Amino acid sequence: MELIQTIVAAVVTLGILVAFHEFGHFWVARRCGIKVLRFSVGFGKPLWSRVDASGTEYTVSIIPLGGYVKMLDEREGDVDPSEHHRAFNRQSVWARIAVVSAGPLANFLLAIAIFWVLFFRGESGLIPIVGEVQAESPAYYAGLESGQQVVSVDNRQTPTVAALNLRLLERLGDSGTIKLGVRYPNSDVVYESDAPIERWLADQEAPNPISGLGITLDLPALLPVIDSVVGDSPALRAGFQAGDVILTADNKSMPLWMDWVTYVRERPGQSIAVTVDRAGQIESLTVRPERAETNGEAYGSVGMMVRQPDIPSDRIKVFDRGPIDALGAALVRTGDLIGFTFSSMGKMLQGLISPSNLSGPITIAKVAASSAESGWASWLGFLALLSISLGAINLLPIPVLDGGHLLFYAIEALTGRPVPEKVQVLGYQVGIMLVLSLMAFALYNDVVRL
Q1: Backbone φ, ψ for residue 236 (5° rounding)
Q2: Cβ–Cβ < 8 Å for 402, 103
């Protein structure tokens, strides 16, 4: 059942992204007078199709990992002379640039629309207050102290933990200093200092920038209270239930959730005798953690989620935006994430970010399912992030991708003549090899994470 939910979440998520991307190409092509032969979401055998009055065939195909818009083009077959003016290859270079650019632009517009909805309905986040500072860490050398609020990174505001994470993630792999702005409680005075970094977190898979800075946040204690149990997991088979409070494991006290997590991770495949408080009654259970592995390191996993503690209202930043302010915030957030995506890809090519962070369809499917389970707002946020990634990746100057076509058309616009057909064909062959290699590597990363 869980596998089916994951597949459905992935298909719906990717289907929406592909449909918007291809609709961008389709809509602009129609506006330019180009005849569209087929609009397809997915590849392979059509599961559904219909033809409209203008002769365009709309299809949903069996393989949901992409899609395409097929336009009338003399390079792909004979075209009736009466329809030469509707062929893609007969259009001006600027019309072709507009059609190709429209796909990624549609993905960016989708992200803006999603963020606008989320911001307009209300946004809140935890205020980043320093808990502990690790000795000899960047934060330690910057002079950060417990109780201070981190208000800016590199002169950019960080009103929430999410904002702090994003600003720090932008500095992954960098060397030099991170400029931090902090203030004490009940004070408006901001103190600035520099945290020294050297190829910061460059070799880490799934880096934690706040931990990498050398701080823990001042948060309410995370108690060992179960919020939910994953289907078909060791925890479910052992009889754990939502609301159970874990008291002991093998007669050892578990005062905090991390005590329990650490105990489980250290015992893959070993039976653990657990006592829990269930609505005032003490229950004894036995669970055997499944063996999981990441980067060759084995650990135990039982499949349960912690109940988040109540946060005092004065520790939460609430944004109350009207429609105009929400749109402005959506534009800023989308622009920040587009810039971050391109910067991250550049750093990955330079070896400043671990290539292990590249994800493929399996990870996307799992995150889509997890986001859907967390609620529609969480899923929409993930959809926006994925839409930005899809748009940015398609703009890379690799033949076969939209960016590769734009590169050829830009050369044509500058020189006044198209790139030779032989050069384009060679470029497409190289591009296919690059794209397939990237997909294979991303899939390999997915399998390693399983």
Answers
A1: -65, -45
A2: yes
**pLDDT tens, 133-156?**
999 999 999 999 999 999 999 999
CB distance 347 to 172 below 8 Å: yes
Copy the structure tokens of residue 313.
Answer: 């209202």
Question: How far apart are the C-alpha atoms of 344 and 1, rounded to whole Å?
Answer: 36
Q: What is the C-alpha to C-alpha distance for residues 175 and 164, in angstroms, rounded to an integer?
A: 19
Cβ burial of 167 (10 Å; 0-12, 13-18, 19+) is buried
* Burial environment of residue 43 by CB neighbours within 10 A (0 to 12, 13 to 18, 19 or more): middle
Q: Quick one: CA torsion of 371, 345, 113, 109, rounded to 10 degrees?
A: -140
For the record, the structure tokens of 359 come out as: 């994800």
**Candidates 22, 170, 293, 297; catalytic one:** 22
CA atoms of 358 and 89, how far apart (whole Å):
35
193 forms bridges with which residues in the sheet?
Answer: 180
* Residue type present at position 261: V
Instruction: Give the CA distances from residue 82 to residues 26, 131, 163, in Å, rounded to whole numbers and listed in that order.
Output: 22, 73, 56
User: In degrees to the nearest 10, what's the CA dihedral of 447, 379, 337, 177?
Assistant: -70
- Tell me how far apart the alpha carbons of residues 379 and 365 are, in angstroms, rounded to a whole number: 12
Residues with Cβ within 8 Å of 379's Cβ and at least 6 positions away in sequence, in order, are 9, 13, 368, 371, 372
Give CA torsion, residues 348, 350, 356, 362, to 10 deg.
40
CA distances from 352 to 99, 356, 448 (A): 34, 12, 21
For 78-120, the pLDDT digits (tens) are 889 999 999 999 999 999 999 999 999 999 999 999 999 999 9
Residues in the chain, total: 450
Query: If DSSP codes are grouped into helix, strand and coil, which group holds residue 167?
Result: helix
Task: Say whether 22 is catalytic.
Answer: yes
Distance CA 160, CA 318 (A): 9
Q: In what helix (H) or strand (E) does residue 91 lie, and over which residues does it extend? A: none
Output the pTM of the full model: 0.81
Tokens 């459905």: give the residue. 8
Q: What is the DSSP string of 247-269?
A: EEETTEE--SHHHHHHHHHT-TT
